[in-house]
Design goal:
This protein is 47% helix and 18% strand. By secondary structure, the chain is an alpha/beta fold.
C-alpha cells in the first residue's frame, strides 16, 4: 500500500497544542492577577503547568492491539478536563468565595491548569505512540504540529482575551477545537495499520510469525506469514472472493487430464496451498514439497490451511533442510517444478539460496514437456538461463496489486499451450497487499 501521509493528519496535534496554550494563558490571567506576589505566583503556575504537561507526555501508552481504544479514552478524558476547567473558570468569575484563600487558589490551579495540561499531554503522548508504532509509516509525530498549535494558541489568546466577556469563554472554544480534533484523529487512525500477531516461532536466522494486518481506511484485512523481515505468504481475510495464489493458478493452468499421472515439485512451498490443490483436484497427482524451515510448515498448517506436515505419505512428501542437499537427493523427473522466490528471499534470493549446481540440476529434474517456474517475483537478472530445447515465457499478474510475476521455462515437446497457461494465471481475482 502507499505510504502517503493521511490528509489533515497534522491537525489533531495542532488543535491539542493550541488548546493547551490557551488554557495555560487563561490560567495565568485568572490566577495571577487575583492573587498577591507576581513572581511567586508566576513561578508556581508555570511550574505546575510544565509538570502537568510533562506527566501527561510521560504517561504515553504502550503499543498494543487495544491502542486505538485507549487513545479514544484519552480524548474523552481530555474533553472532560477542559469542561471542568471551563465550569470552574465560570464559577471563579461569578462567585468570589471560590477564589478566596490559598486552598481555593490551589484548587483553581489544579482544575484550571493542571488537569487540562495533564490530559493534553496524555493525548499528545498517545498520538506519538500511534505514529511511531505505525508499521506502514503513514503517521507523523505530533511534536511540530503541537508546537505550532501552541504558538497560535498564545497569539489567539493574547488578541481575544482582553475583549472576552470572561476568561472561561475561551475554554469553551477549546472544547470545540478538541471535539473537532478528536473527529479528525478518528479518521487519521483509519490510515494506521493494525497488526495482531497470531503465531510465533523462534528459529535460527530470524523468527517466523503470523500476523493479521488490517487497514480500516481501505477496508483491507490480510494474514501474512513473515520470516524475519520477509513475507512468505499472504491471504485475504475478507469474506468476499479471495484472490487465488499465483502458484495455485499455475498448478491449475498446467494440470493435465485426470487419467494422466502427474508429478509436482514445490521448492519453498511449506506455506503454500498448492500441494493441497494437486491432491484434491488431480486423482493421479503426486507432490514433493521442500522447505528450509519447519516452523514455516507448522504455522502454514495452523493458520493457512495448507494441510502439510513434515512426513512422507503415499502421494505427498514434505521435508525440510538445506535446499541444495534436498534437491541433490531427488531422482525422479517432475512434470512441474515450482520455485517460490519468496521462500528464498531471506537467504539472498534464487542465486544466493540455490547453488549453481542445484540450479542446473533443476533443469535436469524436469521431464520432457514439463515446466519449470519461478514466482511470485521474477528471479535475479541472468536467471533463468534459457537452455537449448526450452521455451521461455514471463507472465505478469497485472490485475493484482501485489505484483506477482512468474517466469516459466517449458521443455519443448508436449508442453501445455501458452494461451492456457496465460488464461489460468490471469483468471484469479484482483487482490491487495499491505
Amino acid at each position: 500500500m502507499s505510504s502517503r501521509v493521511p490528509r489533515f493528519g497534522w491537525l489533531p496535534s495542532l488543535l491539542v497544542g493550541a488548546s493547551a496554550a490557551i488554557v495555560a494563558e487563561v490560567a495565568v490571567a485568572v490566577l495571577l492577577y487575583t492573587g498577591p506576589g507576581f513572581v511567586r505566583s508566576l513561578t508556581v503556575i508555570l511550574a505546575v503547568e510544565g509538570a502537568a504537561l510533562a506527566a501527561g507526555l510521560w504517561s504515553a501508552p504502550t503499543p498494543g492491539a487495544d491502542l486505538v481504544d485507549r487513545l479514544r479514552r484519552r480524548w474523552l478524558l481530555c474533553l472532560l478536563a477542559f469542561l471542568a476547567a471551563a465550569l470552574y473558570g465560570t464559577a471563579w468569575t461569578f462567585l468570589p468565595q471560590v477564589s478566596e484563600g490559598r486552598i481555593a487558589q490551589g484548587i483553581g490551579l489544579t482544575i484550571l491548569a493542571g488537569l487540562p495540561l495533564l490530559a493534553a499531554g496524555a493525548v499528545l503522548g498517545g498520538i506519538a505512540v500511534a505514529s511511531s508504532s505505525d508499521p506502514g509509516g503513514r503517521l507523523r509525530g505530533p511534536g511540530a504540529s503541537a508546537a505550532a498549535g501552541a504558538a497560535l494558541g498564545f497569539i489567539f489568546t493574547g488578541l481575544v482575551l482582553p475583549r472576552a466577556p470572561m476568561p472561561a469563554s475561551l475554554l469553551l472554544g477549546c472544547l470545540v477545537m478538541l471535539s473537532l480534533g478528536g473527529m479528525v484523529f478518528g479518521s487519521v487512525l483509519g490510515a494506521r495499520m493494525q497488526i495482531d500477531v497470531r503465531g510465533h516461532r523462534a528459529v535460527r536466522g530470524g523468527d517466523v510469525s503470523v500476523e493479521d494486518r488490517r487497514l480500516p481506511i481501505a477496508n483491507l484485512a490480510l494474514r501474512v506469514l513473515r520470516e524475519g523481515d520477509h513475507i512468505r505468504r499472504t491471504i485475504s481475510l475478507d469474506r468476499g472472493v479471495a484472490p487465488v495464489p499465483w502458484d495455485v493458478s499455475l498448478i491449475r493452468a498446467s494440470m493435465p487430464g485426470p487419467e494422466v499421472a502427474w508429478r509436482v515439485l514445490l521448492i519453498g512451498g511449506g506455506a503454500s496451498s498448492a500441494a493441497r490443490t494437486v491432491l484434491r483436484e488431480h486423482p493421479l497427482g503426486n507432490v514433493d514439497v521442500l522447505d528450509r524451515t519447519g516452523a514455516v510448515v507448522e504455522l502454514g498448517r495452523e493458520y493457512f490451511e495448507t494441510e502439510l506436515a513434515i512426513a512422507r505419505g503415499e502421494r505427498l512428501w514434505v521435508t525440510v533442510g538445506h535446499l541444495d542437499d534436498l534437491v541433490e537427493r531427488l531422482a525422479s523427473p517432475y512434470d512441474l517444478v515450482v520455485i517460490d522466490t519468496a521462500a528464498l528471499a531471506p537467504i539472498g534470493g534464487v542465486v544466493g539460496g540455490l547453488s549453481r549446481t542445484t540450479r542446473g540440476r533443476l533443469l535436469d529434474l524436469v521431464s520432457a514437456g514439463g515446466t519449470l517456474a519461478w514466482g511470485p517475483a521474477a528471479p535475479e537478472p541472468g536467471m533463468p538461463e534459457v537452455a537449448d530445447g526450452w521455451a521461455y515465457l514471463e507472465v505478469r499478474r497485472e490485475s493484482n496489486r501485489s505484483g506477482d510475476e512468474v517466469v516459466v521455462l517449458t521443455k519443448k515437446g508436449t508442453a501445455p499451450e501458452w494461451p492456457a497457461l496465460l488464461d489460468g494465471f490471469h483468471a484469479s481475482p484482483a487482490g491487495a497487499s499491505l
